[in-house]
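User: Need the bound-state model for pyridoxal-5'-phosphate:
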Amino acid sequence: MDGVGTSATLALLDMVQRRRAEGRTILDMGLGEPVFPAPPVGARAAIDSVQNGDLRYGPVAGARALRELVAANARSLGARESDIGIDNVVISNGSKQALFNACFVLFGAGDEVLVPTPAWTSYYDIIRLSRARPVSVLGDATRSFKIDVDLLRVAASPHTKGLILNSPCNPTGAVYSREELVDILRLADERGWWIISDEIYRAFSYEGEATSLLSVSDGFDRLAVTNGMSKAYAMPGWRIGWSIAPVDVSARMIALQSHATAGPGNAGQAAAIGILSDKNESALHLASIRSAFRARRDCALDALRTLDGLELIEPEGAFYCFFRVPGESDDFCRRLLATHDVAIVPGDAFGVPGWARASYSSDLDSVREGFARLAEFLRTTSA
Ligand code: PLP
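Assistant: Bound-state model below.
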């Protein structure tokens, strides 16, 4: 554990809790969870599962019905229609465990894994825990911090074994185009790299659909895609995620998971089956979540656009704004919390000091108020 850092956000969380205990109302824009009702059909299915006494150990790889629904959704994305079945799918305790499984199965001592940066903080540590070495590839700030094949070529070495893509991206909200993904796939194919594609924010794409690697990867086998119920269906506490990977990789993930946690809880899986098998309710939910979060994004951007010269990544997806702050970002976030009761996350947590991430995943009124306070602080503060 020596090389594994504690989360850069923990100290701030501590401060939030202390101020709450003092009776202050904190607007928490550090959140990575969508404030939105989950489709009710999920709760009904979970209640049925509990009332029917579904208490036994389930299959390690997850319920067959859920694996089939995930496989069917994956097939409907296009290119790989013929070769995705339930043996490609493993249901896990959140997509975090799916990412863990993928890194542990694919990478090990001596391997290097490219991480387009800024990136979700856990990638670096999950890779370290798998005994491989994360290699940050800093994206181009003028292109929403996206990476491209030239940047990947420079960062690669003979030890490179793979990379983790995340589109839409946490923390920048950047969305890779189909062409950009095809270029990256081509390079990975040439070099024999694995790609782990974390698509947990795919439902949150505001300028058209975000491309899944599953729809462009025909003929490319070294791919593991992860996703889950946490963000798209606003149920992070149910801990249901999954991976779609080649059958031999999935078999190893199942072996690993059998020793770690076994399959996820029955009630959560029942909720996921209830939602994903109700195509109408599921489609309505996804459409309403997309328009609600687009409105929140526009509201957040309206506030930040009032600031002349603010370096800001205009998010096309996910539910975060990423922007440069004056001075040291940890200090900036502490002062914002102390003076305006607003919590955001310093860019250090994502590998880019000097920037910060504010989430617009809360309800619209809180987003409006929180971003107005943030904008006011940015207008009046200096380093
Ligand atoms: N991937 C990214 C980029 C995330 O931001 C998160 C959670 O914040 C996860 C994965 C993990 O989600 P879960 O384990 O709830 O599926």
